[in-house]
Amino acid sequence: MVDTSFSITQTSDRIASQKTFTIQELAKAIKGEIYGLNDFYCNSGFNGIFQTLNDAVSGDIVIRHWINKKGVEIAAEKNIACLITLNPTEGAISKSEEINFPVIVVDKIQYATSFALKWTIENLVPHSKRIVISGTNGKSTTSHMIYHILKNSGYNVFTNTDAESEFNTLIDPMVAKMIAEQVINAQDVDVRSLDYVADIPNKSVFDYIVVEVSEVQGWGEELMENHALIMSSALNPDVGVVTNVAMDHIGLVKSIDEVFDETLGIVKAINKRAVVLNHDDERVLSMLDYLNPDVEAYYTSMDKDKVLNFIAPLSNKVYFDLEENSIYLNGVSALSYKELPFTSEHFIRNILSAMSACLALKLSVEDIISGVKSYKPLSRRFIKLSDEPVIIDDFAHNPDGVKATINATSTLANELNKKELYVVFAIRGSRGEKLNGLISEAIAEVINELDGSNDRKVKLFLSSSIDQVNDLNVVKPFEKDIFTKTLDDNSVNYTHYDKLVTVLDDVYNSANNDDVILLIGAQGMDPAEKVLKDLGHI
After folding, report:
1. Cα–Cα distance between 410 and 402 in angstroms, integer?
2. Inter-CA distances, 17 with 14, 193, 304, 410, Å
C-alpha cells in the first residue's frame, strides 16, 4: 500500500491555520472541483463551522457523502457557505448551476472531513493535547476509560466515543461539529456576532481531546485507503494507542496484512510524545520499526516475563501479573484484580492501554489509579443485566472479540459455580459471506473447546433479529446459510430464531437462576436490554 502521508498536507496546513479562506483555497486543499457559484454563497463567507445539512445555518460548510438536487435547494435556502460532497446525484450539479450555488465535488471525502477536523482544532482548541486510539478490538473501551481518567483528574475533556461507537469513523464532519458546538456553548459572548468563529476569546475549553479512530474504513465496498493515517494526522496527536490487529471489515480488506497497513497509520501520524503498543500482538509490536524520531514507545502486556525481558525502560511497561493477580506500573503493584471495574482478559488489556496512555501524558500514578477504580463501563461492554440468572450483554462483533467474550463468560460461570451457559448470538446482517463465515468458525471453535474442557455444555441460540434491525442490517438468506452450515460442519448444536424477542423470551424461561446467559453480537443484539425489560425479565 502506498503511504501518502496525506499528500495535501502542506496546502492543508497553511489553509487550516487561517481563520478564514476562500472557496478556491478550500477546493485546492481538499482536492475538489467547484461547480455552480465560484464563491461562497452567503455574503459573509465561511463562518467557521462544519455542519450536517439538518443543523446547518447561514455561513456553515456542509460535508455529505452524497447530495441530490433537493439537498442543494435546502442548502441554498439555509444560505450556507457551500456544500462538499463525494457523490452528487439526481441532478445535484445541474441544480447548483441553475441556482448559482457552490458545490465542491471531491474524489476522497476523507480529505474534506480531515480538513474540517484540522481547521476546527487549530482555530478553536489549539492548546489542547490530543490522544488517538485505534485497533480492531477494544478501542471504544480504551478511549472511554482514558476520557474518564482525565476527567476524574479534574481536566476538561472531549471524546467522540459513545456506547455504539457512532462517531469513530470520522467519515462525516460530526467530530468537528461536536467540538465546535461545545466550544461555542462555553463562550461568554454571542459567537454569531463575531466576524469569524475563530475569533472566540476562550480557546482553552478542552485540556484534552480523546478521539477513537476506526482502523479500517470505507464507503459501500470501497476501502478508504489510509483513513487512520489521514484522520490521525489531522489531529496532530500527542499520544497514540494501538490495541491489536485482527481480521475485521471483510469486504473492505482482503487480508490481515491490509488491516495492519491501515492500522499502522496511527503510528505514522505520531510526531510528538508517545505511542502505546500491545506487546502481546506481534503485528502491533512490529510497528516499532515505523516510529517517528523522538517518539517514545510504551508497552502493555499480559505476559510479565516476556515484557520485562524486552529491552525498554521499566517505566514504559504496564503489565498484568497473573501470579500476583495485579497490574504493575513502574515495576510496582498498582491495582489488584478485585479493584478492577471488569476482570475478563480482553478488558484488562483495555485497562492496561488506558493506563499506559495516561502515563505517557505524565499523569500521576495516583490520578490514574483513582480513575480506573471509579470507572463505569460503556453499555454493552460485558455488562451484567441480571443476577438470577446472570445475564451478560456484550458488543463483540468480530471473530477475535467473539471468542474472547465467550471464553470470559465461561470463566465467570466457573468462578460463580454456575451450571448451564446459554449463548445467544445475533448474526450480523449485510456483512457478507466471509465475515459471517469467520465469526461462525470462531463460535464453533470456542464452543468445541469449552465442551471438551469441562462438564458444562454450551447451549447456542442464533437470532436474525428481523423484528429489531433496520434495512442496513437485515440478515440475508445466504448470510444465515453460511453461518449455520459452518456450525453444522463443526458438529455444533444450535437453535435459530428469526425474532430477537422470541429467542430472548424462550432462553430466559428455559434458564434457571443458577445459570448464565450471554447476549452477544452487534446491531441485532443492541436492543436486547430493552427487549428484556419490556418482557419483564429484568
Report:
1. 12
2. 5, 22, 45, 53
